[in-house]
Structures
1.
Amino acid sequence: MSSAVNLARWGVVPYITAWSSEETPPVAVVVRDGRIAYADERAEDRDGAGVLWTRIGFSPGVGVPQFKSVHFLRQRRAMRGLLCQVCGARCAKSALWMLSREEYEGADGPWPAPVMTAHPPVCPGCVERSARLCPHLRAGHVVLRPRRVSPAAISGVLYQPTRAGLVPSAATIAHNDFRTRWLRAAQLHVTLEDYDVVGLGAMVVSGSGGSSVDRGSGRQGV
């Protein structure tokens, strides 16, 4: 039987990290009222927009942290409530986003092109710690302060109804796509718009255009 562990043993465990005790239980997915549903569906299985979410246990601190896995519910809470993905505190207007070199340079274009991400924000107090401890940021990252954050997409398992039954496949679709009724959601994505680049970590260039960043103004140079 699992018992609560001393978090100091693991160092910093981000708020959105899944723990080994938080299992995804097997569920029967059926078609009901023109959309997928759980055979034993409960009210908490859907969000306010009616999207069905993947079930997962909730017992942070119990077992072993799964650093490569994101807890679906805490990721959604962090995105919608602007909670720091590291400490779980509410960021509100101080919310910052840390993107790896690969993620930022793979965006639609350099500043000021909008950037879509599934990573929740971080609070100012967790920026340095994140840069130091997060493996995917060590090869280079940017810190962005957006003026607008809007819903963009949802990732999960998309079910295709066929004569032989439901055929599942991994997918990411727009949050307002009509196919969300066939999606078992796992993560939210947002679009960051009208942002300033306020920090660079081990990066000389930023954006898919390869233009340099003015380190003094935090704006992308030309």
2.
Amino acid sequence: MDNIIYFIKSVLSNEIAVNSFPLIYKGEMNHQMMRSFALMANRKMQTMDVSTAVRKKVFHIMIECLQNITKHSDDYDEPNNQIGNGLFMVGRDSNSFYVITGNLVKAQNIEPLENRIIRLNKATASDLKRMFVQQMADGELSNKGGAGLGLIDIRRKSGRHLYYHFLPYTENAYFFILAVTIPLESSPDENDD
């Protein structure tokens, strides 16, 4: 896995470094790490000419993505705590912010995850709002503590499709990459709820 992560980090870090605001981390994702990333990113965004609405979206999406790694990575150091390991990147170019995450996913979890992302990417803003409200009302906590709201909320807040890829790692696991784009300017049809 280190070779995969090295490749991703080297390619993306070069791209993001050229475009500014690089923040890259690989390792254990816990509450303390999420708080550190949030503080660093917020501090950096405050020095940029970025609207408060965009800063809030980036912050919110960052936290959701980090929580997805914490709760849903199938790679963790402490089996009792199940604090996930993963890769996290945030960057900016002239038009958008990017939040990119990566973590191991067991092979049996790929099909339902991919189907969920495809369904979210096909949904309109009103469909996403309906899905979110329905999941809030009907959703149950998974065995890992998730309520199924994270990807819906990420898709809603970004207003853009979720980009993803599964890289084979072992016979039973894949490295799941999720990339979210947050435009610097909102389009009129975006849902800011």
3.
Amino acid sequence: MHSTLMIFLDGVGIGEKDPAKNPFFQRSFKFFNQVFGETPCLGNQNISRNDKYIFPVDACMNIEGLPQSGTGQTSIYCGVNASAEIGQHFGPYAHSALKPLIKEKNIFQTFKERGLKVAFANAFPQVFFDYLNSGKTRINVTSVMAMDSEIKFNDIDDLRKGNALSAEITNRRWVEKLNYDIQIIEPETAAERLLNFALENDFTLFEYFHSDHVGHGRLAADKEQLLSDLDQFLYYILTNIDDEITLLICSDHGNLEDISIKSHTLNPALGISAGNNAEYLKDTIKHLYDIKPAIMDLYK
């Protein structure tokens, strides 16, 4: 079985080679420097090494203003220029006018309609389920499309059994901030679990949103721990990927790569491909809305 693993990093772009602005140049990140030999920047956006590729992805999509998560993620998961659909960038949540489009065209739904197996690897704490049960609807695009496509939301029981990943990878925030009685795991353990999940499905999605929070200047006390865990996690994924897996790491807009400001940026979003079909994805994906069609082309 051919498997595609998408790791979505919220708010990670390719920025300037400036340690004062760009955390990726403040210290050495293994998933860049040890896998690719260097860190991407605006002057060096395309890097390849050992059949693994770093490439820029246009997040502006010919619409003025700063790219936002709602339209960016809709573009990624639905294969349309969502910003052009409504004439603006919008976020962080799904725009009401885009919800019918998300329901019909989201990547989970398309895989299911083709009789293929999909999974959303994230686990959610009880506060998330309480929010949904309250009738409130301000949730991100990923959650909207999972609900529309009747994809399982993993909970604490799934996390304890090792059948899901916490959003920050290691369960640390579940323990320290949410007071759950659960083991804190190593980033490498989480990465191995995710690779195993991918082999069980045709398409597996893991969403990491703390990168956007750090880029906005939040979570200052946890910044170094979060970035270190993410680095180790991605390094393990990139160096242990199975031949049957196509890996795509992607983002919806720039943010984290320029911490001199607390807003999003106009920089290209980060794209990384590895494993089976990696070169095809690198050559095909130029804009956010190219991501879904490029993935679905692998299943013709």
4.
Amino acid sequence: MLEAMEPLDEDAGLMLRYRAGDADAFMALYARNKGPLYRYLLRQVRNAGAAADLFQEVWSRLIANRARYEARAKFATYLFRIAHNCSMDFFRRDLRVQHRARSDAADAQSAEQEVPEHQRPDGIAQFAEQQSALLAAIASLPQEQREAFLLREETGLTIEEIARVTDVGVETAKSRLRYAICKLKKALDPAEEMAASTRAPFTRAPRKRPLNGAVNGDVLNAST
């Protein structure tokens, strides 16, 4: 269990107001977090119908447990911990989903298109021509690595916060994220894959341009 206290944020304040009965605070929370939450769930389960059901389940759990909420961490950590638990319950309920983890690019792109374009990550929206390749690469990641990457990319959570959400050690969370980024780079840049075979793991080769807005070098230097 992490000893360091996470800094609170504006959303945590809104949740405290909602706990006290302020319905407007809940509407503000929902508006600010619905996009990242739905994208996370959609890419986790790769099924639009299931993602919509889980989306509703997450908010229902939050509402049901609002009286017990305590602002011990950033609200995103609290919300995505619920989302993580809901998605794990889903995988346990339907083991067949795990066998569909390596869905093809067409299926991944079809599901992603159900998200309004203004809610998509800037990198994907800006580089639309790379969308299919990126989504397929994300879908091909092992579930634990995919989740670490999505939590980082969609919410900006730190390594420590990702560890808290997924209930693993900091080093495990860091390792999952590094492996995910390494695999995405190889999948999206053939030159990277060739160079990787001639250098040690996690050694970054010089790059003349960013690979993609959603997969950048900054994540590799995430604080621990």
